Structure to design on (376 residues):
């Protein structure tokens, strides 16, 4: 719960990992105890305090800071004393780099299950914040050294973990499961939202270097220069992250993009679905992804997708999207121009999308529940 507490306190919108944590909380909360951890401090709350915290994190959207402060003051030290034999389920990577974690698990006789989202800080350290690669190495080493079982959000992620384990000369846990992440039931679009009157494209996700927003902004600079008011629009739905100096400079200082590139730092799910539903395509030019829920959400909305040719996208989207190399600016430019006018390939996607079966949480937890029972 530590990640959800921190994210709620920071008043930031949920990321993909946050949504996974919330889904696990919703599914397992009624039979679980909350673990609050920071560095070497770990508190396992008793059932009453855990239930109160779970309800606050699932439903306490207003006055969240004051509510969390009051909760921690009243309930923060109501501990569950005997945790032996229970499962320690960590699905957000939080606290895995703490050096004391493996010994704590041994001392408390907890059986540890981890969900691995990605190894991007290890495989693509240049796209991450300073020091994150070393922290993620510690996370994954501690995971491999202490795990009774590991859940991977995709076969691609499990393959990356296997390569890392081999490089570290640490065996993978005996018990492994690939369980594709689910998404919410398709949201009802906000019909009051005003969509642009001319063709537009959407990008969903935190603005960070590995998402490759810079490629799109340079393309839009060319489109605006060449087409002027006839250029399609680009809508960036997501909060600003890290390692984005070049992107931020364009967004803040290139006034020629005003009215052509719109940045929406805060956007409700219903507003997002409303905008996605009218887009010519979702653009996903990432250099690396652990999963890619926006691709699923776009297809659920009936919107075509132009994405990087990453193996993980093919696992859950098959051959529906148009896949391009993330460094091929000309191919992206051509595809955007073509899709804005209504290409044959866009029509191909439109015809395939109604038969798309998105991964869902019901299937995810059916697999996870059965697997957990098999290793209990």
């Amino acid at each position: 719960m530590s990640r959800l507490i921190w994210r709620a306190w920071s008043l930031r919108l949920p990321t993909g990992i946050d949504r996974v944590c919330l889904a696990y909380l919703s599914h397992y909360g009624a039979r679980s105890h909350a673990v609050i951890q920071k560095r070497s401090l770990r508190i396992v709350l008793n059932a009453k305090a855990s239930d109160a915290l779970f309800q606050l994190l699932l439903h306490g959207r207003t006055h969240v800071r004051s509510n969390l402060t009051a909760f921690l003051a009243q309930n923060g030290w109501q501990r569950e004393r005997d945790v032996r034999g229970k499962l320690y389920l960590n699905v957000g990577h939080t606290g895995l780099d703490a050096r004391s974690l493996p010994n704590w698990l041994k001392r408390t006789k907890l059986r540890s299950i981890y969900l691995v989202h990605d190894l991007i800080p290890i495989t693509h350290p240049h796209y991450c914040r300073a020091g994150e690669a070393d922290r993620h190495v510690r996370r994954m080493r501690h995971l491999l050294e202490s795990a009774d079982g590991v859940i991977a959000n995709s076969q691609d992620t499990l393959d990356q973990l296997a390569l890392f384990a081999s490089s570290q000369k640490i065996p993978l846990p005996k018990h492994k499961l690939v369980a594709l992440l689910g998404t919410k039931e398709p949201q009802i679009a906000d019909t009051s939202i005003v969509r642009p009157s001319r063709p537009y494209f959407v990008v969903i996700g935190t603005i960070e270097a590995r998402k490759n927003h810079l490629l799109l902004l340079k393309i839009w600079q060319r489109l605006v220069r060449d087409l002027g008011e006839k250029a399609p629009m680009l809508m960036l739905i997501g909060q600003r992250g890290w390692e984005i100096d070049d992107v931020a400079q364009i967004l803040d200082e290139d006034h020629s993009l005003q009215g052509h590139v719109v940045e929406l730092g805060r956007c409700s799910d219903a507003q997002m679905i409303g905008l996605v539903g009218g887009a010519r395509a979702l653009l996903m030019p990432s250099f690396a992804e652990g999963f890619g829920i926006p691709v699923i959400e776009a297809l659920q909305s009936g919107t075509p997708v132009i994405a990087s040719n990453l193996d993980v996208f093919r696992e859950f989207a098959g051959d529906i999207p148009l896949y391009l190399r993330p460094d091929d600016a000309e191919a992206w430019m051509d595809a955007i121009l073509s899709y804005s006018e209504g290409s044959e390939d866009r029509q191909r996607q439109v015809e395939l999308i109604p038969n798309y079966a998105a991964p869902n949480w019901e299937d995810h937890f059916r697999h996870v529940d059965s697997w957990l029972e098999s290793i209990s």
